[in-house]
Amino acid sequence: MNDLRDLYQEVILDHGRRPRNHRSLEGANHSANGYNPLCGDKIVVMVKTEGGRVSDVAFQGTGCAISTASASIMTESVKGKTIEEARELFRKFHELVTGHEEPHGNLGKLEAFMGVSEFPMRVKCATLAWHTLNAAIEDKKDTVSTE
Length: 147
Ligand code: ZN
Description:
The chain is α+β, with helices and mostly antiparallel strands. Helix content is 43%, strand content 20%. The chain has helices spanning 2-17, 65-78, 83-97, 120-137, and strands at 30-36, 41-50, 53-62, 144-145. A 4-stranded mixed sheet has the order 3-2-1-4, covered by helices on one side. Strand 2 and strand 3 form a beta hairpin. The chain is globular, with a radius of gyration of 14 Å. It binds zinc ion. The site of zinc ion has 8 residues, from helix 2.
């Protein structure tokens, strides 16, 4: 179990330091802003959907290592998925980080965040990118706040 924890730590550190899809997105047809006042994490999620599928997704913003790593892994996880699949993934991720679901090994890198269920404040950092993705897909104009 310790090895697994080390591995998860490494995944989060790696994505926190070198976030993937951390750029502006040309041709995005959805975007939303997210803010986590407890930690100061700010994010913009840009999405390009085609035929009900997420064809590209990117983010910009500044935040702690957890929020940045989570946004990075979120973009990798939902790219190419249908909007329904992306929503379902968020549901499962949310259950995992709030401790309502045991990890089964089928959420891939998303399981790296299972440790945050022990830290309620960190749950907001880990879910900010996902809440913002949802708001973008639903074309919500107001900034998403975790409060
Ligand atoms: Zn944070």
